[in-house]
Every structure is written in C-alpha cells, then in structure tokens.
Design goal:
With 553 residues, this protein is of the alpha/beta class. It is 57% helix and 18% strand. It is elongated and about 150 Å long.
Length: 553
C-alpha cells in the first residue's frame, strides 16, 4: 500500500507531503488546480518517462518520493533478483533535472529507469488510454479468460506445447542432418579412408619428419658409427687399448697418492662409458637400410601434410574431423531408426498437447460464460444495458496456429443494439463506452492479476446521474481489495471515498502554487456542495445526504 507521497518542485507543486491509507481516496478541485499534475508525479515515481517540463520554473530539479509498506511475495522476488533491499518498507525516489536527465532510486539504491518502470508495473495500475488499447488486443482478451482459470492447467498446456515443439525441432534437425549425410556419404567414406590410412595424432608430423630425415642420412650415419667404433675399440691402438695402459700404470701407484687414485677412478669410468657406447655404434653400423619402411614413412608424411593443407587444420583438427565424419556416417546409417523413434515420440507429444489444449478450450468456454454473467449488472448500471457481450473462442486444428497458450483464437465481440450483428470491440463502441466497459471489467474483478494500487484519472468524464453513482459504487467495491486513488469532478463518485483530498491553487510570492489538503468531515461537505454548484444551505444539505446515501450503500 502507498502510505505517503512527497513532491518537491514538480510543475505547480512546490512542496507536497501527502499521507495516504487503504480503501478509496478521491482528489477533487477546480479545473486547472493541478489534478493532472498529481497523476504525472505518481507516474514518474513509478517509472514513467521523465519530462524536463515537469521541473518547476526556476528550480534545477524536481523530486518525487513514494513510501510503500507491505508487498507481495512476487515483489520481494523482484527486489532480490535485482539485488535490492527487500524489507517490508519500499521507498521509490525519482529526481528529474531541468536538462531532462533523471535518476531513479529504490530503497536508496540507484537503479536504471527500466528497473523502476518494471517494479512500477507490478505496483501501479494507472487506468487510462493504455487499458482501452490493451483491451482491443487478442492476447489481452485471452488473458482476461485465463485469469479465471487454474494456473496448473495453463502451465501443463504450456509444458505440453514446449515438449511437442522440442521434439518437432529435433526431428526437423535430424532429417536435415540425415539428408546432408546421405548426400555426402560417398565423399565422407573416401575422406575417412584417407585419414584412417594416415592415422593422424598430435606430434605425428614431427615424428615422420625425423624418421624420413634419418632414412635419407642412413649411409652417413653408418659411416660415422663405423669410424667411431674403429677409433674407440677396434683399431690398433684403439682408445680403449690406450685407456687400459693408462689404468695399468695408475693402479701400481694409486695407493700412494690421492690425486692419482682420483684420476684412476675417472679413467675407469670413462672406459666403462666407452664400453657402453660400443653396442649402440655396432647397431647403427650393422643396420640394413629398410627401403620399404622409408618409403612408407615418406608417403605417410606427404599424405599428412596434404590432408592438413586440404582441410586447413593441424593434426588435432584432423582427429576431430575423423570423429565428426564417423558420427555423420553413423547418423546416415542409424537415422532411419532414430527418425522412426522421434516420429513416434512426436505423435505421443502431439496427442498430449491436443488433449490439454482441448481441456483448456472447454474451461475457457465456461470461463467466458461466467465472465459475461458477472459483467452484465455492471454494464446495465453504466448505461450499457443494450450492449450484449460474448467471447468467440475458435479452436484451430492446424498445428501452425498452436502455441503455449493452446490453439484458441479468442475474440471479444459486442452487439451494440438488439438485432445488430456481432462485431469486434474496436469497430462498435465509442471511446466513452469503452472506458465504462473497462471499468465494468475491473469492477467484476475480471482483471485478477492487477497491481495493488489503482489510479483512475477522470474516469467519470461525460457521465452523470445514476451512472455516476454506480461508478462510485464500483470504485468503492474495488477499494475493498485494492488501494484506489480517484481524480473526479462528480460529487456522486467523491461521496463514496474513504478519504477526500482537495487540490487547490494559490498565489504565493507572485508565483502559482498547487497544494493538497486532506479534508475533515465539515470540509468535505463544503467541497461536495461546491461540486454540486454552490455553498448555500440547500447544496450543503444535499451534500450531507449524498454522503449518507453512499455510506449506506
């Protein structure tokens, strides 16, 4: 509930502090006193587009603050989702600068205007042209019926549609992939055979380069190994023979000198290393050149580089390509079975969706009948007694029209006068009738998901008499479950309010200022008398009678 509104330097409002309460509050005043300014201020603090013209002349900024106490769980979830303080009290603040820039705050935290607007849409229902435009949209007309239905049924229908849509998309993609795979199957098999012959893996190119280079230098390697082996162990005198002589000379005296003992140890180690080198050298010297293996490595190296060039990738990319080709060929071979399985699953999902959509269709028919009955008394009382209303619900069997809301196309139609044809809402009734039609819908609680605060700006324009009384009763009834703020010119409507606020315009320091004042009982009688046309005794008594009548009803 909105408990207070604070306005500074906003158009004609220099400083306004207004305390509000539950139920219905009416705002009245002379024409031009600033009632529309109040609506603009309310809209701005709840996120509507800022206007630099709203800044009071001579001021550098306008500021509006709204204090809200107690909110629903969905509001708490919204605040938590945006990392905002979710205490029971909610403070909305809007600063509008003279250059057109604005800043928005929720519980002291700066937020984008978009976030304030989204929160405002959950808190404030500003009755006006938007309601009329929305009512003409088929989606909104569907939502009127769906607001009367079980959320479980709506959710199950949406879930059944998403399951059907998901299987349909999977089957479509499978058929596309299958068609592509079949068209390219021969090429893929040929390419896969070539890649399997190369058997790519990371580091293979480097290994093949080393192997081929070794084959090319086979004679050079043998010659080097033979020369080294002859020098170290086979020629006379060989290096090992000379090593033996050195060791023999040192062994006889090593016990008498530590340096000689150390030298003997090192020479013995060198001899052991030379002994170990000999087998490796003999292996290379005696190895026969494997021409066949050399050619195989050379051909594999060439094939690998050609494959990398052809596919513009490296060895790792070729491995991934092989996996993809194997998967695509496997798909081509198994697609028929998978396609059959998906077709069966899709048929089951279609039956499930059609079943849920049929149930939803039947429930909408019943909800439409109930809603037409509920709105009838309100239309009669609002001087729309000749208007007949119906919801035409058309179930479309073609799957191209299916969606998560079922397969219904819903049209809200009216018969303006008996004997005339049924027509769409926007082609039949006037703007004033449409405004009363929306009020009738709100009065019978058709708009069940409406925000907790409703603001009606001159909803009674162009009416009077009994219609005005009924508008007051509708708004008062609505105020039993929502907080309702009403700007009105009609005393019949004002008489139903739980709280009456007068908007007055004064001149202060040669500047015009609009002020808001909550009226006491006597002041309220005088204001109703003014609205009736005068402050004489007869008007005052009429005003008291109106208040008694409204209270009694």
């Amino acid at each position: 509930m909105l408990v207070s509104l604070h306005i500074r330097q906003f158009a004609l409002m220099e400083a306004v502090d207004l305390e509000l309460g539950a139920g219905m509050t009416v705002f009245t005043g002379e024409t031009g006193a600033g009632k529309s300014i109040l609506v603009d201020a309310l809209g701005s603090v709840f996120g509507s587009r800022a206007n630099a013209d709203w800044v009071r002349h001579g001021a550098d900024k306008a500021e509006i603050m709204a204090v809200w106490e107690g909110h629903e769980e969905r509001i708490a979830r919204f605040l938590e989702a945006h990392d905002l303080d979710a205490d029971d009290q909610l403070i909305l603040r809007r600063i509008i600068r003279a250059d057109g820039r604005s800043r928005c705050f929720i519980n002291g935290t700066p937020v984008p205007a978009r976030v304030l607007r989204e929160l405002g849409q959950r808190l404030l229902d500003l009755h006006g042209q938007h309601d009329h435009q929305a009512l003409l949209q088929q989606d909104f007309q569907r939502e009127l019926l769906d607001a009367q239905l079980s959320r479980t049924l709506l959710q199950q229908t949406a879930q059944a549609f998403r399951q059907w849509q998901s299987l349909k998309d999977r089957l479509r993609r499978l058929r596309q992939e299958k068609e592509r795979a079949l068209k390219q199957a021969d090429w893929m098999r040929h390419e896969l055979d070539q890649l399997r012959a190369v058997a790519p893996r990371e580091g293979l190119a480097e290994e093949l380069e080393a192997s081929v280079e070794k084959g090319r230098r086979h004679a050079q390697l043998q010659q080097a190994a033979a020369l080294a082996l002859a020098t170290l162990d086979e020629d006379e005198p060989s290096a090992r023979f000379l090593m033996g002589q050195a060791m023999h000379a040192l062994k006889s005296v090593a016990d008498y000198d530590e340096s000689l003992a150390r030298a003997l140890e090192l020479v013995m180690q060198a001899d052991a290393l030379l002994e170990e080198a000999a087998p490796s050298l003999r292996t290379v010297r005696d190895a026969e050149f494997d021409e066949e293996a050399f050619q195989a490595h050379e051909e594999r190296r060439i094939a690998l580089h050609e494959a990398m060039r052809r596919h513009q990738t490296d060895e790792k990319g070729l491995v991934h390509l092989m996996q993809r080709l194997e998967n695509d060929l496997s798909l081509a071979e198994t697609a028929a079975w998978e396609e059959s399985r998906l077709e069966e699953a899709l048929l089951d999902a279609e039956r499930a969706y059609v079943s849920m959509a049929n149930r939803l269709h039947e429930e909408r028919q019943r909800a439409a009948d109930r809603l037409v009955r509920l709105i009838r008394p309100h239309l009669d009382a609002l001087a729309l007694q000749d208007m007949q209303v119906r919801f035409r619900i058309q179930g479309l069997a073609s799957s191209e029209h299916w969606n998560e809301h079922g397969f219904d196309r819903i049209h809200l139609e009216v018969m303006a006068n008996p004997g005339e044809p049924w027509r769409a809402l926007n082609t039949t009734i006037s703007g004033g009738e449409l405004s009363r039609f929306v009020l009738a819908l709100k009065g019978c609680h058709a708009m069940r998901n409406a925000p907790p605060l409703a603001v009606f700006d001159e909803v009674d324009t162009g009416v009077g008499g009994e219609i005005a009384w009924h508008i007051g009763r509708v708004l008062s009834t609505m105020a039993q479950t929502r907080q309702v703020l009403v700007i009105s010119h009609l005393p019949q409507v004002a008489a139903y309010a739980d709280r009456h606020v007068n908007i007055e315009k004064h001149t202060r320091d040669q500047r015009t200022v609009s002020c808001l004042r909550v009226l006491n009982d006597d002041e309220r009688v005088r204001e109703l008398a003014r609205m009736l046309g005068g402050g004489h005794d007869r008007a005052l008594e009429h005003a008291r009678a109106m208040l008694r009548s409204a209270k009694a009803s």
